[in-house]
């Protein structure tokens, strides 16, 4: 029997898991502190020094300019990459010929190191948002494409035939058949894409941009301001945690409860 009783049984497991997660975070902070004390302030700031810099950093006018540009690039790049991968995956799921045609490009993009894409994009687009968004879109699309195609291939053929019998149009088929069937793998792919998109945007900005969080990171590294450098790292980690634990994971849990079969 599932429902409230199973939720009560899972509660101690969830509390234990969270307690060990907190312990893992404390161990990481302790290891960071010990490494910083061993390496010295020139190479690594302590956790307290990084936290102390966050306040003045957030209050500076450059913070909102750099953070706003990076958030725009992350949003546009991830949305464009996810939309492109989903659209191509839906089309390829219906056509084996198109799947075969796209497969070499998919393999090439997933096998190519991101730094190579950054160098090529700098040559094609120069420095700025176009280059960063292009890189993020190009590197995010294959993951969404693969998950969409795999989900499409596992949709029950009888359900597809039923929609054809009842003459469902493309929109009704997408809404009532494909989206419910693909929601779990697509949300997992979106979680990976959102977190990976943050890393890609920051990396692209470090290597070749005139503003953004990565540009501020590169400046802090150039001036050997390790406290500001690690403060930016903590802020980036906070953004990734916000995306994953506040938005995407609750959405996944709600979807899981909705898809869970109910028993009397």
Description:
The structure is a single chain. By secondary structure, the chain is mainly alpha-helical. The chain has one domain: Orthogonal Bundle (MetI-like fold). It is globular, with a radius of gyration of 22 Å. The termini are close together. The model has no long low-confidence stretch (mean pLDDT 81).
**What distance lies between the first and last C-alpha atoms, to the nearest angstrom?**
7 Å
Radius of gyration: 22 Å
Q: What percent strand?
A: under 5%
The number of E-state strands comes to 0
Percent helix, as a range, is: over 70%
Order of helices and strands: HHHHHHHHHH
CATH level-3 fold name: MetI-like fold
Helix and strand content put the structural class at mainly alpha
Structure in a nutshell:
The chain has helices at 4-39, 47-59, 61-94, 96-111, 114-125, 129-153, 157-165, 170-208, 213-222, 226-259. With 264 residues, it is mainly α. The protein has one domain: MetI-like (MetI-like fold, Orthogonal Bundle).
Descriptive keywords:
MetI-like fold; mainly alpha; globular; cell membrane; 264 residues
């Amino acid at each position: 029997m599932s429902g409230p009783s199973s939720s009560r049984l899972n509660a101690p497991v969830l509390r234990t898991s969270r307690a060990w997660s907190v312990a893992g975070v404390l161990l990481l902070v302790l290891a960071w502190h010990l490494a910083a004390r061993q390496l010295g302030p020139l190479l690594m700031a302590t956790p307290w020094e990084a936290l102390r810099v966050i306040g003045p950093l957030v209050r500076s006018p450059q913070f909102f300019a750099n953070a706003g540009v990076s958030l725009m690039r992350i949003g546009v790049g991830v949305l464009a990459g996810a939309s492109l991968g989903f659209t191509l995956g839906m089309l390829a799921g219906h056509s084996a010929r198109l799947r075969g045609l796209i497969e070499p490009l998919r393999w090439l993009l997933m096998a190519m190191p991101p730094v190579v894409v950054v160098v090529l994009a700098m040559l094609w687009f120069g420095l700025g948002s176009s280059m960063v968004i292009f890189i993020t879109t190009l590197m995010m699309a294959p993951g969404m494409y693969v998950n969409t195609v795999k989900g499409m291939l596992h949709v029950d053929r009888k359900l597809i035939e039923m929609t054809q019998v009842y003459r469902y149009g493309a929109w009704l088929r997408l809404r009532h058949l494909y989206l419910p069937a693909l929601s779990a793998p697509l949300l997992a792919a979106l979680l990976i894409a959102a977190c990976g998109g943050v890393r890609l945007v920051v990396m692209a900005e470090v290597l070749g941009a005139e503003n953004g969080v990565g540009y501020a990171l590169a400046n802090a590294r150039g001036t050997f301001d390790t406290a500001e450098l690690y403060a930016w790292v903590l802020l980036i980690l906070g953004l990734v945690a916000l995306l994953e634990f506040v938005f995407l994971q609750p959405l996944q849990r709600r979807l899981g409860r909705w898809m869970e079969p109910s028993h009397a």
